[in-house]
Amino acid sequence: MKIDRLVSIIMILLEKKRISAQKLADMFEVSRRTIYRDLEAISMAGIPVSATPGPSGGIEIMSQYKIDKKVFSRDDLSALLLGLNSLPKTLRSSEVEHTLAKLKSLVPEDQAEDIEIRTSHVLIDLSPWFGERNVNHNLEIIKAALEESRLISFTYIDGHSTKSERKAEVYQLVLKGRDWYVQTFCLTKNDFRLFRLSRMAELTLLDEKFLPRKYQKPVLDFEETAKKLQTFIKLRVHKSILDRLLEFCDFDCIKADGAEYYLAEYPFIERDYYYDMLLSFGDKCECMEPPHVREELKKRIERLGRVYGIRKSRTC
């Protein structure tokens, strides 16, 4: 008999006036007999549960029974409900739904409408506008590994496109920006490693279990390191990509250059990722300074041209 299921049933009965035993059984994925045993245990604990037969009957807590719903303030309940409702769908589970039911049962009737309005002030949807990486399958495997302390194996493709076979203990799922990561102890490297789920292939949940070791949290803040490596380059961009530019630059760093163009101070690090980002702007962006970045862009454009059979033009 699960204590969390008993508590969940109590909270659901407090929230609803009446619910059938079959609905409770379906909700918790157990038999009706199990639900009746749970209800008997709840009654023995001193909470008066009654059953009404017939088509409109069901299970309910006697109306005379009262519970203090002032454990949390209105702001507390609003914040908790907002946080749980904002969980990505990929992480929502029956446990989360049961917790939501518990919290909602604590909302006083005279504050229910106000709290509902407050929780609707913010909507968090982490799914992309177009398309979606197929990480759901990997997420399910990782969650199972976390719950059961089982090892995983996978092929990993790193940032330099190098493939390697890995075996690891799983310790934490991480959502950083728009990407999912998993913090592990990599048995292949004998050290803690953070892996991006989109770079994991042939992910397998192994039967072998592990004894969790002292956990080392992943380092997720590289702002200070980035500041040391970062410089600012001067770009001239067409107004049609201004919205994309604002994803990387503060508006204070952008000035009008005529009616069609802008000059921008763009944060830049000497890495392929940043050069690729500049090239993704196409002919709507020109690097003005410094000269070495401009020259490197020209070389990369020439190499791209050779891929498509475009020869460098000769001057007479």
Automatic annotation (TrEMBL):
Gene3D superfamilies linked to this entry: Winged helix-like DNA-binding domain superfamily/Winged helix DNA-binding domain
- In what residue span(s) does the HTH deoR-type domain sit? 2-61
Q: Name one GO molecular function term.
A: DNA binding
Keywords attached to this entry: DNA-binding, Transcription, Transcription regulation
Q: What is this protein called?
A: Putative DNA-binding transcriptional regulator YafY
Q: What is the lineage of its organism?
A: Bacteria, Pseudomonadati, Spirochaetota, Spirochaetia, Spirochaetales
